Predict the structure of tRNA (Thr-GGU) A37 N-methylase.
Amino acid sequence: MEPITYEPIGEIRSPFEDPSEVPVDPDEPSGAAGRVELEPEYEPGLDGLDGFSHVTILAHLHRSPADTLRAHPPFAEGLEVGVFATASPNRPNPIAQTVVRLEAIEGSTLHVDGLDLLDGTPVLDLKPFAPKPSLLEELETGWIGEHLDQEY
């Protein structure tokens, strides 16, 4: 298979300089405000995004070691699962998907809240967060729901 390459469209500006500073509890949003700074040529692509409360960011985890297929979720003591059953940043292809609250758009900069990415993280793409209602009705959260003791 031929290698696939992507060019970042911008980068994250967040208060997190080190991976150990990034919050990992899925039950508690980070509350970290920051920015998604896109390259100016992508500003026309933001048209219409201001009507959404949340945005999905796809990013390259540029400081992820990507050296294992097993993970130990930090909020589920003693549990070990496959990396594909977690949001661990340690992945074969270090790509992050995270949802943040969209506070404002100024030019090619998005002001967001709830960041869980390192400062300088390359952004690959943005999408409006709009879950399909039919999926919410049949959503199962596996081990995460069991360890958080709640339903989503």
About this structure: The longest strand covers residues 95-106. The domain at 10-146 is CATH 2.40.30.70 (Elongation Factor Tu (Ef-tu); domain 3). The mean pLDDT is 85.
